[in-house]
Write the structure tokens for this entry.
Amino acid sequence: MTSVPSWANVDERRNMPPTLAVSTVILGIREGVEGGPDKLCLPLVRRIRQPHAGLWALPGGPVGARESLGQAAGRTLAETTGLRPNYLEQLYTFGDIDRSPTHRLVTIAYFALMHVDQVGATVRDENVAWFDIDDPQIARMAFDHRQIVDYALWRLRNKTEYGQIAHRLLGERFTLAALRGVYEAILGRRLDPANFRRTLNSTASIEATDEYQAGGKHRPPRLYRYVGHGPDPLQVDPLQVEPQQG
């Protein structure tokens, strides 16, 4: 993840200019098993070299000399996981002096949400895997990456609206039960269905369609869609992931 010269000793590494890197938090929803609650999850990459060899980390890497921050985020994400979200949002800059044990490292964190049908999709590599947000291994992530994940969760819980989350995690059409499952996963607690429905009725960003979910033994539930407009409350500095050359 670093570009520090291998010949540099400990003192030389600590006095070199900071290395600039990017890391990306990708969040998705994994449907509950046998009626259990839905779970927020994210892809991680296991480090194969020091520091923190063997620990799981956010996908990322150093910024190239001739690429933008957004290009670096898209490139490193594709190289490490094979994932290519259609947008990336700049989340925050993490630059504490001692966040890396070998040298000064400044990381620009990015954030994105993926549809439920994309969860679990990565390159076939034993060092790349999806984890539920409450998995104990996430508490032992490399560097300060758990702090980065917590910041992304805080942002998701406090600066979003119902329909927008559904649109990004569930797709164009969704049921109220699926939407409630998303918010229960994000908030980490159960929500009363009646109160949840009343909350939705008070927002203009969601509307009922004339479509119903197919399948099932009971009356099919109505499908809803997101119709919100205006600035995206999640976006800080949206950057499109540019297509790879070659």
